[in-house]
Known about the structure:
This protein is an alpha/beta fold and 213 residues long. The chain has one domain (3-211): P-loop containing nucleotide triphosphate hydrolases (Rossmann fold). Helix content is 50%, strand content 13%. The protein contains ten helices and seven strands. The chain has helices at residues 15-24, 32-39, 45-51, 63-70, 74-101, 133-142, 148-156, 161-166, 178-192, 199-204; strands at 3-8, 29-31, 56-57, 60-61, 106-110, 125-130, 170-173. It has a five-stranded parallel beta sheet, with helices on both faces. A hairpin with a 2-residue loop joins strand 3 and strand 4. Helix 2 (32-39) crosses helix 5 (74-101). The protein is globular. It starts with a strand and ends in a 9-residue tail after the last helix.
Amino acid sequence: MTFVLGLTGSIGMGKSTTSAMFQKNNVPVYDADATVHALYRTVAVPLIEQRFPGTVIDGAVDRKLLGQRVLADRQALKDLETIIHPLVRRAEKQFILDQIRLDTPLIVLDIPLLFETGGQQRVDAVCVVTAPAEMQKQRVMDRKTMTEEQFNTILAKQWPDQQKRAHADCLIDTSQGLEFAEQQVKQVIETYCHATGTVAQALLSKKDPLNHA
């Protein structure tokens, strides 16, 4: 039965690069962020425009405008999550079901806020992407698209790296270069590609799995 591995890590840790490494090694990856971006162009558009008028431009949600509305407003962020999370979860479940039918031995759920949203209950194991705090900050600041204040605001909404590492089943350290990180990814794949998981079986056993939270 398909083993479901959760992949997570704080901003600037190299999670997207690590996710690509899993895909390069033929492990299917569900990308929660990509799903959200797709929803911002499709079914979530009218729901978001109703709650956050003026954030839809040319038929798609403008992420920058929406971010300005919710980043420092706890209630607004909660309202956005109420709209988006059920849609994301449904897409996630469909991905798992599709991979079960293909008899895929190992899949990855790439979820940035996995711990913060209780996502560890939906995977068989958790892999945390990590790097030293000073390297993390430098990577984010080098993007030139974020201020230090915005960076700190985002960090405040995420579990500290130390806490994530303490709850991880395995780690990918991205501080020592791409080659070292890929070696770790291959080790993780080797560890879990023949492991027995319970998440997929539990999902499959439900009469209508796409209608369950």
